[in-house]
Design brief:
Largest sheet: 4 strands, antiparallel
Distance between the termini: 51 Å
Number of helices: 5
Helix content: 55-70%
Order of helices and strands: HEEHEEHEEHH
Mean pLDDT: 88
Strand order of the largest sheet: 3-4-6-5
Low-confidence stretches: none
Number of strands: 6
Radius of gyration: 21 Å
Shape: elongated
């Protein structure tokens, strides 16, 4: 029973770390990257639809991405969604068949803003991992009558080391992203 709780907790923490890494990837660096557009939602016939489901994204130059919609009627909506996305600073242009998105050069001030944003996202991810730990601790405490005190103490130590490992993984990803953002 303890092993099940720890295995489930480890899997949930792994997913939280992966979600944090994906979130970090949406913050732009000096190069244009199709992952920046993964979380953009386009108003497509009244429902918010992820851009990746409406168009193909191609990185043709270091700072330019071409968005080719599958449905040409969604062109204006895609252009508007990209323009309205905060923290992107992109300037999309529409030629009737596709949207070209040119990313502006990052200033040092903007880089520092992005570092703050990434740190906030990292802290949110760590809080989420700690929340998972808290729930697992409650689940272990619920097993107190079924298992011995020594097994429970061992499981809590294992839970703490699992939490520490996942928080460290988030910190490592955060350091890599900060270095990437501050690189000129």
């Amino acid at each position: 029973m303890i092993a099940d709780v720890l295995a489930d907790t480890g899997a949930r923490m792994d997913r939280a770390v992966e979600a944090a890494k994906e979130d970090f990837a949406t913050v732009r660096t000096g190069r244009a990257n199709p992952q920046l557009f993964q979380k953009i939602l386009v108003d497509y016939y009244g429902s918010p639809t992820p851009l990746a489901q409406l168009a193909s994204l191609n990185n043709i130059e270091a700072r330019t991405i071409v968005v080719t919609p599958y449905d040409k009627s969604a062109l204006k909506a895609i252009e508007q969604a990209i323009r309205d996305t905060p923290n992107l600073g992109a300037n999309p242009t529409n030629d009737g068949n596709l949207v070209r998105v040119t990313m502006p050069e990052l200033t040092e001030e903007r880089r520092k803003e992005y570092v703050k944003l990434v740190r906030t996202k990292g802290e949110d991810a760590k809080v989420h991992v700690r929340g998972i730990r808290r729930k697992a601790k409650d689940d272990l405490d619920a097993l107190k009558s079924d298992v011995g005190e020594d097994e429970l103490v061992r499981a809590e130590k294992e839970l703490d080391s699992l939490t520490r490992a996942h928080v460290d993984a988030i910190d490592d990803a955060l350091k890599r992203k900060e270095a990437e953002l501050l690189e000129v």
